[in-house]
Amino acid sequence: MHKRSMVITAVVFAAFSSVYVVAGSPLALVTFGVQVAFVRRRSWWLLAVQAVAAYGSVLVFDTSVGILGFVGGSLLLTRLWPLAVAVAGSAALLGPVDPVISMVLISLLVYGLTTMVDRIEQVNAARLSLAMTAAAEERLRIAAELNQGLGEALTTIAAGARSGAPDVETARRSLADARAAAAGYRAMSLAPELTTAKAMLVAAGITADVRMSHAEPLGPAGALLAAVLREAVTEIVRRRSATACLIETVAEGATVRLRVSNDGARTADDEGLLDLRPQVEAAGGTLTVGITADARMVVEATLPGTRPPVQPSSDAPLSMALLAAVLAGFSVKALLLADSLWPLPFLLVIVFMQLRSVEGRHMAALSIMAVLTFAPLPLFGQAWLGVAGFLTGPILLAFPWAVALPVTAVVVAIVTVVGTSLGLPVPLTVNYAISTIVTGLVVYGLVRLAQLARELRESRDGLARAAVVEERLRAARDLHDLLGHTLAAILLKSELARRVEPARARKELDDVLTMTERAMEDLRTVSGEHGKLSLGAEAESARSVLAAAGIEVSLELGHSALGQEVETTLGAVLREAVTNVLRHSSARHCSITTAEGDGVVRLSVRNDGARASKGRHGSAGIGNLTTRLAALDGRLSVSQEDGWFELTATAPTLAWTPAPA
Question: Distance between CA atoms of 557 and 15, rounded to whole angstroms?
Answer without folding.
Answer: 54
